[in-house]
Structures are given as structure tokens and as C-alpha cells.
Specification:
single chain, 557 residues, alpha/beta, twelve-stranded mixed sheet, 19 helices
Amino acid sequence: MAYLTDIEIAQACKLRPITEIAAKAGIPDDVLEPYGKYKAKVDRSLLETSARKNGKLILVTAITPTPAGEGKTTTTIGLADGLRRIGKNSVVALREPSLGPVFGVKGGAAGGGYAQVVPMEDINLHFTGDFHAIGAANNLLAAMLDNHIQQGNALGIDPRRITWKRCVDMNDRQLRFLVDGLGGKANGTPREDGFDITVASEIMAVFCLASSIADLKERLARIVVGYTYAGKPVTAGDLKAVGAMAALLKDALNPNLVQTLEGTPAFVHGGPFANIAHGCNSVIATRMAMKLGDYAVTEAGFGADLGAEKFLDIKCRMAGLRPDAVVVVATVRALKMHGGLAKTELGNENLDALEKGLPNLLRHVSNMKNTYGLPCVVAVNRFPTDTDREIDLVIAKCRELGVNVKLSTVWANGGAGGTELAEEVVRLCEAENHFRFSYESGASIEEKLLAITTKVYGGSGVNILPAARKQMDELTALGFGNLPVCVAKTQYSFSDDPTKLGAPENFTVTVRNIKVSAGAGFLVALTGDIMTMPGLPKSPAAERIDVTDDGKITGLF
């Protein structure tokens, strides 16, 4: 049987005019700014002018990802559609995809099958230009920094201690490390430099955590770009770059409105990576979804040890958000991979491999329920090859933790395949909720790292290398020790070693670098071999993407 591809399904869908979607969501015409027929921006002033009570907030997260796939974004969209099908007013809030994964190996991030946000080609490519604005603001600050040094360096910036990089939204390993300013005095000061991918830029994090223009400017002003010869931090405010950067970001700060295949209103806004940054869509979009829907469904990137931890410990802490329920997405196929089964063998029943892989799911579920005190349900994306005995084993193991399992077939059936999950989520939103963070703000940097490692990852300790410890001591002395910690870590394991699948124990996490993202309001701890500029694979998805003579895009998935 031949299946339609995601893009073929999306292109066959009859989209509703964005004005109709806005009306369904209760968005007045005077705050709607259409970008063509099927996408629009919504003025953030609606958050202040609407008297509507906030709806329930549902977080969708997942097990540790594998090449078998989990379908977190697909489940998020299908759940929102499922809620609509059982008569609930739902709105979904997602991140914007980065061009790096789109042209690399992962592909787009607009969902899949019959649970997608559309127009998927626009969303996965240039969309409304938000990423361009973020990249331009980032690179303007870099240009003003180097120009300040060129024009006399009144602030006494040490070129050897510049921490700010330029960015581009593309996987380009060639740009990770470079030397620039060559060619003589008129062409700048020669120094070591490099690029980050746009979604790893602090501007992206600032953009997603800002609550208003005023808050945006305050955060931009705090960004540390380097240090003086005397060791004093130099900020974007010191360089007088804030006003111009905010001008570039002003329109982008309004969230983007699109729709699901079933016409559910969807905000797609901001896109920080979860293995590097905090991995959640913008605070403004989340609040907008809560303001307009009785149920706001959002997701956090990669597994719950990354995206969900950062959503809860960073985003919720800063924005004053409190989730009402959590969905942990899993597949039997992925759990069997965590149990040591090869990808080629996943179509065969194997209860032993499944049982060996189940601790990965159970640790994520336990974290949501016990570490964070949140009501939780497991959503299993069912594949045709999954057997009843395999499904029953997952249900039994989760029941031991007091958590229900609901089967999801939203990829094949859209919202109709998510109604059982939707009913359970509605029930959980009224259940007892003891939400708490995994660490307190007053803890030291080392104590926060230890709490995340032991309470969330399941490790035994933290190994802070001498260079990172020196940075930690300096940042504490500069007054940054009270900030939350954003751990940059491999997405493929609870540990910092991507080869340790399942639920490893008795491991330590090695921190090799700690830097401050003062504008975003958190510290970034780099572990393992994590990089802030990915590279393309041997056979990138870009090789298979094309456009026909009549302008129809093909090969995008």
C-alpha cells in the first residue's frame, strides 16, 4: 500500500482563509496582520486588552529520541485536534522550524501525516521572516562590537575574550571556528571567531522569553558580548546597540497564526534548540494560546530530560506559568531500540527488548510525576507492527507508576485518533497538581547542576572541569550565580554520552564550559561534545528537495 508523503497530504488539504481561523479563535480584525491568505501575525496587545480568563496549559514531551521516531509534534497537533473533536476549545503553540534540520537530517517540524500545521512549506522555509530578523539583530550586535574596537575601543574590550558570535540559520560546520579581521588595519582587528546556528543564538532565547517590547529591550541590554582587559563584562547596552536591535525585532515579536489540517488555530513562533538552548516556543505565543483557548497545547523539544526540564525550570519560572497536565510520547519501536534492538528488527515482536527499553519511558514519566509533581499520561503512537502483548506490557509498567497509557493514531487518523488521549488530558487538568521546580533559584550553580543530573537524568554526580570551574567562580562573583541553568547536552541519552541508551545509572555528567546568557536570564553549561553549530550529514535532505516549474515544492518532509 502506497502512503502519501507529509507534503502531499498537506498540499491536498483545502486551507481555510486565515481570517476565518482568527474568527474561530476570537481574534478581532484590528489586531490581525495577514501575511498572504493563510498566515498572519497577531498583535501582542491582545494579551492586555482581552478580559478572557486563561485556559489550561498542556505540555507535550517525549522519551529520549531514537532513529525510530516518536512523533511529539504530530501528537501535539493531533491532541489539539482531538480536543476540538470532543467539543473543547483548543489552541496549539509550537516552535518555528530551523532551516538547519530542514535541509539536514531531521526534516521539518510541522507535524506529520494527518496531524500537521499548514501551510507546511511556508512554515518549514522562510515563513514570516522571524528568523531573518533574529539573525540580523544578532549580526548587527557583532558588527557594532567589532566596529567599537576598530574605532578606538573606548571600553577597553579584550579581543581575546569576546564571547559573541555571528549566526546563520544553516548547518555549516565550516563556520564553527575561523579567524577574521584579516587584510590590514582598515579591515578590522584579527581575532579568532565563529558562527552559531541562529536557533542557538542568545537573541533567539531572548526573543522567546520576552513578554513585551520593554522587556525585550531590557533583556537585549543585559547581553554580555565579552570582557574588558580588566575582566569587566561588556554588554549590548554598553555598545548602544539595543534600540536598533529592538527595531529589527519589533514586528517579529508578534506571534504567527496558522492552522492545523483540521482548522484548529495554531501559533508557531520562535525556535530555540532544546539540546543547546531552552527548546520552547515564545512566552508570548504560549500566553496567547492560553488567552484564546480553554486548552492550550504546547511542546518542548527532544526528550523530557531536555525540553521539558527547561520548559519547567526556566520558562515556567520566568513567565510565571503552571502546566495543568503533561503528555509523554513514546513508541514501542523506539523503546525496543532503547532495549538494544537494531532498527531493521523493530517490526518483529520482542518483549525482552521492550522490557529492557521501558526504563527510559518510566524515568521520564517518574520525573514529570514525582520530581515536578505534575499529572501525567503516556501517549503511545501505535504502529501496525506493534502487537497487543507489547502494548499491554507498556500499559502494565506505566500503571505501576499510577499513570495511564492512551494509544494515539493521529498520524493516520488526525484528530479522530487522538480523542481518547484528549479525554484523559481533560481529566488530568482537573486532577491534583503539586507543580514544583527541580531546584531553587538560591542554590549555587554546582548545586543546580547536581540537582538536574541526579533528579532528572538519573546520574550520580557532576564532573566540572577546571576551566568550567574557573568560569563558574567568575560568574558567581559577577552576580550571575542565582540564574537558572540551561544544560547543553546530547539529546540521545539521559547522560552526556549519546551511546548510553535506555536509562543508564551511576554516570557523571562532565561540564567543560559555563557561559552566561544574561539577556535570556540563564547560564549555559556545555557538556560532552555538544556543538552550537551543527553540520550536514553525508546525504542531506537538501539533495532531495526541489521545486517544479509551476512553483510546487517537492521532497520536503
